[in-house]
Amino acid sequence: MVCGGSGITPIFAVLRAVLEDKEDPTACVVLDGNRAEADILCKSELDALLVGNESRCRLTYILSRPGPAWTGVRGRIDEDLIAKEVGPCAGADGGDMVLVCGPKSLEESVLAIFTKMGWDKDDMVFF
Which domain of life does the protein's organism represent (predicted)? Predict the structure, then answer.
């Protein structure tokens, strides 16, 4: 799941549905990009969802204009970050999918990056 700014809204809804269902075996990686720490929407709710679900979900906040105290990832959601955090598609029968919501520039960039990494456009959902 890749989102930017208010694009967290549909991503959060899907993530919550998956993680609240203890029988659902789905594992998630969430890349949430924002400008500054104060811009991260639903941060406390997202962090609370992770409690007890650490083995099923990895959430990374990325800030393009972080304050000096920020210890997390700095920059933008780019090819290096996606390769490191997500990696190549497991294949057509792997059941992997990419959910994306954010500004048009983010969506276009993410589409190009995942396609270059071997992901099929049919395995990507843009909100």
Answer: Eukaryota
